[in-house]
Amino acid sequence: MRVDIPEGKDPIGYVWGEMVPGIGVAAAKFSLAVYSDSTLGLREFEAARLRVAQINGCLFCQDWRTERDGVKVEEGFADAVAEWRTTDAFDDRTRLAAEYAERYAQDHHNLDEDFWQRMALHYTQTEIVELSMSIGSWLAFGRLNRVLGLDTQCVLPVTGR
């Protein structure tokens, strides 16, 4: 880890909650809201989330699977996300979610008109905003945890969704 954690302290709770409580607590609430309040389907949600996790290299995020009403994506879904261009496991929305996550994280200046036209065919404007905020959360906070070496210590609380 890149920060010193006092003996007996939970690394995530300490860094996010105690070291910078004015920022960390707000960031944690935003991060949790992405999971608890999302209206996106589980497959497109997980495709975008996992693609960001793969790009960030966040170990915890790559192993995590969001669960909704007792349902998680199938085994092998993460492999399909890594191969989003060619997999036959995805519908158009799921494929676009993975593509958007990758381009948002690596090449956001080149989100061209063709891309936005394809997004508009499959997502409402509200869904595009929600997906954008979600990807931003995963990119920022997953990368923060990876850079500081917290990704091996991370545990997300159950949100009831």
TrEMBL record:
Keyword terms of this UniProt record: Oxidoreductase, Peroxidase
Molecular function, one GO term: peroxiredoxin activity
The organism's place on the tree of life at top rank: Bacteria
Gene3D superfamilies: AhpD-like
A Pfam family assignment: CMD
Domain Carboxymuconolactone decarboxylase-like per the UniProt entry, residue ranges: 28-102
InterPro entries membership: AhpD-like, CMD-like
This protein's name: AhpD family alkylhydroperoxidase
Organism: Actinophytocola oryzae
